[in-house]
Amino acid sequence: MSQESHKISNSAQEIVFDHVVKTYPNSASPAVDDLSLTVPAGEICVLLGPSGSGKTTALMMVNRLAEPTGGDIRIGGRSIRDLDPIQLRRSIGYVIQQTGLFPHLSIAANIATVPKVLGWDRKRTKDRVAELLDLVGLPVGEYGSRYPTQLSGGQRQRVGIARALAADPPVMLMDEPFGALDPITREHVQDEFLALHERIRKTVIFVSHDIDEAVKMGDRVAILREGGRLAQYDSPRALLKKPADEFVARFLGADRGLKRLSLVRLSDLELTRAPDTGTGELPVLPGEATLRSALSLMVAEGADAVRVTGDGGAVIGTASMDAVRKAGAA
Ligand SMILES: Nc1ncnc2c1ncn2[C@@H]1O[C@H](COP(=O)(O)OP(=O)(O)OP(=O)(O)O)[C@@H](O)[C@H]1O
Ligand SMILES: [Mg+2]
Fold first, then answer.
1. Residues facing 22 on adjacent strands
2. Ligand nearest to the CA of 54
């Protein structure tokens, strides 16, 4: 068998969990039990569930840091059993919690770790480091020679992502990558990652225990319950609209209706035409605001509608409370 056949190809790959079981030695019950799900190439799948539900275990089986005790995982149609574990790990970007940057290495050297192992020459490595730091908004001239302690938490997370992307892996595994950030920085890094993903389209498995994060980041969300069993696997919208059972409903929370409103933007609504002149003072929001924000503003201001502005800031129409309510129930 040639060297190349041990590797997975560089384009985004579908990942299939096929009746995967993991029982750790000396364990009475499995950590992951009969897990079957497919992550389409180029999508983000969020694994969501309470502590101990097997999320990290499921993730680590993909790059064989944990070996399945039953079933199979296929990447791009190839069983991970047929792939060399070392090669496999090099072709998968892995972002662990707290980023796991090497404290004694500069930011540039941290990112160059995998290219170095792969034997890239200096020029190629240097160019790649500069390109990636640019991609995550940390220009190499300013940040490349710093050490991890000389960055903010959010910047470290971005370096962690850049490092995972270094060898352009088709698959990325991210274990609560933004877990340690304050809510504002976290939202910012989430937005950045989504924008980045639009451009690079990797297949991503993303572990979270935060429902809002899962709904925001996931094309699909897999909810695991204790014992590592899959409770539901669906789009965020479908999940929030129709929880499969009591466990999922409780996990999503009583405000899941509001969460659904956060998936729809005012510009997605059929707006009623704005009156030519202001009839009373309605609050104003841009079209990209979510229905959740619109509802919140209407409640805060005691209004029954919001005026919606377009790209240039001109009013393009009005969204009523009723329209928001209907869209939320759709
Ligand atoms: N190396 C190990 N040996 C034995 N049992 C383990 C090992 N790693 C994890 N487990 C057990 O497997 C189960 C699942 O653990 P896992 O770390 O996958 O959960 P998790 O969903 O990632 O939880 P958290 O949200 O707390 O990170 C737990 O009961 C845990 O105690
Ligand atoms: Mg975990």
1. 32
2. 1
Q: Is the pLDDT of residue 9 over 90?
A: no
CATH 3.40.50.300 domain locations along the chain: 4-91+169-261
What CA–CA distance (Å, rounded) separates 286 from 107?
A: 38
Report DSSP state, residue 266: G
Residues forming CATH 3.10.580.10 domain(s) in the chain: 266-329
Is 3.20.20.60 the CATH number for 266-329? no
Class of domain 4-91+169-261: alpha beta
Average pLDDT, the chain: 90
Looking at ligand 1, which residue's alpha carbon is closest to its atom 6? 24
Residue located nearest, by CA, to atom 1 of ligand 1: 24
pLDDT digits (tens, 9 = 90+) for 303-327: 999 999 998 888 999 999 999 988 8
